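Chapter review: from sequence to fold.
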Amino acid sequence: MDATALDQSSRAPRSRLHLTVATALGSEIVGGRLAVGDLIPAEPELCTRFGVSRTVVREAVKLLASKGLLRTGSGIGTWVLPTADWNFLDPDIFAWIQESDDAETILQHLFAFRSAVEPAAAAEAARRATLEQLYALEAALEVMSQAKTDFSKWIEGDVAFHTALYIASNNLFMAPLANLFRQYFQMSFKLSSSNFHHQHCLQEHRDVFEAIRARDPERAAQVVQILLEQADQDVRAVLGKE
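The token string follows.
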């Protein structure tokens, strides 16, 4: 995105120009065109490129710094921070990831995270879930059951099911993860759902629910792990990895 693209956005309030600049630079960072450790172009160059003032550029850089993407040093310039500093839960960063070629890598990290945490969350849900939380899991299952080949409806139910599972853990650290990772769940489920067999996938989720309802923590953790392994295989198949 350059001054030509910005010209189209100039009809918007000037106070929002920094968002357009931040989006362009953020996309380049997340997409790897500006690599970790790279210095971004100096202010005068960015002003010329985007046709904006220094104030707009500084506001854009400040915004990206707040997301963990950039840091500015006196007399050094502004450089791209390591990915460990990035706020991957930020909605803008998530949007830029979806547009990048690195979405596959992000999903691999997501599956590794879920494999470490979700079985434990299921086990805790088997121990702690309230009747109301069991109803929420069952309601999500019903949405999935009715979906059949309606992928949008299936994804809606799938996200609701895993969200309800984390909440049903009633763990102060696990439960909030449901909403924090909702957008990544949606991205993952969209891929895995395009390679799914309705009855087989539904049964895997039903097995999780039945284990939680039976108050069987060991079984709940086991069947969630099986479900995750199958979902990982489905995503890899869609991406041509298997």
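Two observations follow directly from the output. Residues 14-85 form a domain with the Arc Repressor Mutant, subunit A fold (CATH 1.10.10.10). Strands lie at 70-73, 77-80.
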